[in-house]
Amino acid sequence: MLGLAMLTIIIFVSSVTAYAVASTSTSETILDKAVSDFSSVVKTERIEDVTRYIPFDTIVEEDANMYEDEPEIVKVRGEKGEVLVTEKIIEVSGKIESRETISFQVVSPATNKVVVRGTKERSYFIWPYDGQVTSYFGYRFDAPGTTDHQGIDIDASYGSSVVAARAGVVTADTGWDGGYGLCVHIDHGDGIESLYGHNCELTVSPGDYVEAGQVIAYAGSTGWSSGTHVHFEVHEEGTAIDPLTLLP
Q1: Which SS3 state, helix, strand or coil, does residue 189 take?
Q2: CA 110 vs CA 80, 81, 101: distances in Å
Q3: What is the model's pTM?
Q4: pLDDT tens figures, 168-181
């Protein structure tokens, strides 16, 4: 009976000891986890200086002497400005939760970009005669003495109708004009004039107002001409320009 009692006591003590050990282990695990969870949600604050940039604006200046389809001119290149910002940064669990600006100091202001754009409408023309161009504007070798061709030559049949390429007023130069022969000059009112040479007959007189497409002459070969054609010139502020830049 004594031996059985001793065995019962040993089993009881062992059970209690095992339970105590298990309880202690569990308590330590819970504590470790709590510490770990607490450390992962720690909130921190710090002060930091950050460089930021100030964007520049684009200012447009209009130029009435530039055509609206000309590329814009960059007068002043834009430059970003720079500002030094002091911020309070709050982090939770290693991630930024908020930023608060405490103060700032402009290191360099932004320089606005300035561009120049034209507002002048280009004066487009219609063809004075629907024919093939046989001689172009500018330097040429095919006509001795006229290497600087001031216009274009358009092949035409004798007596064909020549029309005004754009509306305007017939000027006093219209009539017999030296090497141009019977010639029509039209002032279009914006510094642009057109000229139609070598005609056999004119249908307009100085001072007449003509519409685009109105018959103003009949093609011929008067003046300094080697054959029937329409000589067509365009002048801007007195300077000859290539008519093809204005024709469709």
Answers
A1: coil
A2: 5, 4, 20
A3: 0.56
A4: 999 999 999 999 99
